[in-house]
Design brief:
With about 325 residues, the chain is an alpha/beta fold. It folds into two domains: about 250 residues, Dihydropteroate synthase-like (TIM Barrel, Alpha-Beta Barrel), CATH 3.20.20; about 55 residues, Sulfite Reductase Hemoprotein, domain 1 (2-Layer Sandwich). It is built from ten helices and twelve strands. An eight-stranded parallel beta sheet has the order 8-7-6-5-4-3-10-9. Strand 6, helix 4 and strand 7 form a beta-alpha-beta unit. The structure holds iron/sulfur cluster. Iron/sulfur cluster (SF4) binds next to loops.
């Protein structure tokens, strides 16, 4: 048994993305996004299955046009994990994927255009029990906000989010979650902290365009780590210029570090030094690879000598 996390989570309203609860007392879910061509149904299904095997709770798929919406319907029939359709601007795509069984729509109401279009999307979402994710991104702020603030700022991100939220509020639709992503850690953290104090809906955390496997992991861990430590965040996506499966692994490692989720092996390993009695690094790499399919929460220690391992003296010498 692992000790519970000392983090006190912000109390958010709970929504459901398919069978996965997000917010409230639900575990923080880990999600990723496919990077295959959505029109290539077989490749996209194969990647979603890899993500499912890695433990993904939710998977997002880009649906740029109506042809992709039809492909999305075929993909949806082949997989179990809840799917979010990522849609920009074209409300008709949202209406079509709602018919095809989508589990969540990522669409910004303020970008859809005329009020009746927003109304149509919200009605489809309401009738089918589909939540919406409002996804604000520092790189694509509305022109008037860019002009008002001069450059992306936390206040600009939050103002944009609140506008989209107002659209849903006016239609009395509360089944949504929100993200305010930026590549800059300070900006994202400040925006999420501000937003967390304004709304009760769940927050989807992410540092966008974080970087490659190593640099993006570090940046995301710092940004999301600060927010998660504050108790902010109900679902996370680690954005890496890497295999999406890595995003899931890193996401879970983050949550495991903060004792917010326990899944699979929690490794404890010394960095190794000249005292090592075996090759610690090679052993660690092999164990990580060989035990990656284990989902049962377990602590595994790889300690190179007795100094910090069994029979450890009162004052550790190194590590
Ligand atoms: S436990 Fe510490 S002292 Fe022993 S091998 Fe590992 S790093 Fe070196």
């Amino acid at each position: 048994m692992h000790a519970p996390s000392p983090i006190k989570r912000r109390h958010s309203r709970q929504i459901h993305v398919g069978h996965v609860a997000v917010g409230g007392d639900a575990p923080i879910s880990v999600q990723s996004m496919t990077n295959t061509d959505t029109l290539d149904v077989a490749a996209t299904v194969a990647q979603i299955r890899q993500l499912e095997t890695a433990g993904a709770d939710i998977v997002r798929v880009s649906v740029p046009d109506m042809e992709a919406a039809e492909a999305f319907g075929k993909i949806k029939r082949e997989v179990q994990v809840p799917l979010v359709a990522d849609i920009h601007f074209d409300y008709k795509i949202a209406l079509r994927v709602a018919e095809l069984g989508v589990d969540c729509l990522r669409i910004n109401p303020g970008n859809i255009g005329r009020e009746e279009r927003v109304r149509a999307v919200v009605s489809a979402a309401r009738d089918n029990g589909i939540p919406i994710r409002i996804g604000v991104n520092a790189g694509s702020l509305e022109k008037d906000l860019q002009k008002k603030y001069g450059e992306p700022t936390p206040a600009a991100l939050v103002e944009s989010a609140m506008r989209h939220i107002d659209h849903l509020d006016r239609l009395d639709f509360q089944e949504f979650k929100v993200s305010v992503k930026a590549s800059d850690v300070f900006m994202a953290v400040a925006a999420y902290r501000d937003l967390a104090s304004r709304i009760e809906q769940p927050l989807h955390l992410g540092i966008t365009e974080a970087g490659g496997l190593r640099s993006g992991t570090v940046k995301s861990s710092i940004g999301l780590g600060m927010l998660l430590m504050d108790g902010i965040g109900d679902t996370i996506r680690v954005s890496l210029a890497a295999d999406p499966v890595e995003e899931i692994k890193v996401g879970f490692d983050m949550l495991k570090s903060l004792k917010l989720r326990s899944k699979g092996i929690n490794f404890i390993a010394c960095p190794s030094c000249s005292r090592q009695n075996f090759d610690v690094i090679d052993t660690m790499n092999q164990l990580e690879e060989r035990l990656e399919d284990i989902m049962t929460p377990l602590d595994v220690s790889v300690i190179g000598c007795v100094v910090n391992g069994p029979g450890k003296p009162r004052k550790p010498i190194s590590a």
